[in-house]
Amino acid sequence: MVLRSDINDCINNPCGNGGTCIDGVNSFQCFCPDGWEGQLCDHNVNECRHNPCKNGGRCVDLVNDFYCECADNWKGKTCHSRESQCDATTCSNGGTCYDHGDAFRCACPPGWGGNTCNTAQHPGGASIKTPPGGEDWNNVRKKKKRKKKKKRKKKRKRAGGRASSSSSVGPSSGISKTLWDRKRG
């Protein structure tokens, strides 16, 4: 009869980087701490393998962690937050933009309100929103007038430089001279 004695395969602590060795019959198994893998816990887990950095950030692998070197104007663990939520167009109508964590707030001048100062506030509680992009209604009206004027000019050009008979106005068209003068002036 041959006697076998079981040798403790963990006696020399073969598991690296703080791994725990579990002895078996002529074998052992390593249980690795977070950040390490492999049969002997000798391979650093690459936490950058899934590209956690956003917005052009560069990932730097650490043991059981990573950090991102963020591109200009970005911040946060994964470069997910803008350095500033404000730019020249964030607040309309002369409002001043302030960063508020990962958001912004607008300090609106008198007569304006809303998240981006795009709501005109009038005495008595009435309010009117301005168009997107911070443009005020006066500019929008002026643009529409210019557009209509261009259309009329094109129409006249197609009609040989004069207005068509259906759009004639003046004393001969049945409009009184006073009304004609008002329309012209």
From TrEMBL:
The keyword Transmembrane belongs to this UniProt entry's keyword annotation = no
GO BP of this protein: Notch signaling pathway
Task: Specify whether Repeat is a keyword of the entry.
Answer: yes
Entry-linked InterPro entries: EGF, EGF-like_Ca-bd_dom, EGF-like_CS, EGF-type_Asp/Asn_hydroxyl_site, EGF_Ca-bd_CS
For this protein, the record's SMART domains field holds:
EGF, EGF_CA
SUPFAM superfamilies referenced in this protein's UniProt entry, alphabetically: EGF/Laminin
Q: Which residues form the EGF-like domain?
A: 6-42, 44-80, 82-118
Bias kind Low complexity: ranges: 161-176
Region Disordered: start and end of each range? 123-185
> Which terms in the Gene Ontology molecular function aspect does this entry carry?
calcium ion binding; Notch binding
Disulfide cross-links: 32-41, 70-79, 108-117
Basic residues composition bias: residue spans: 140-160
Which keywords does the record carry? Disulfide bond, EGF-like domain, Repeat
Task: Specify the superkingdom.
Answer: Eukaryota
PANTHER family per record: CYTOCHROME C OXIDASE POLYPEPTIDE VIC-2, NEUROGENIC LOCUS NOTCH HOMOLOG PROTEIN 1-RELATED
Put simply, this protein is called EGF-like domain-containing protein
> What is the scientific name of the source organism?
Scophthalmus maximus (Turbot)
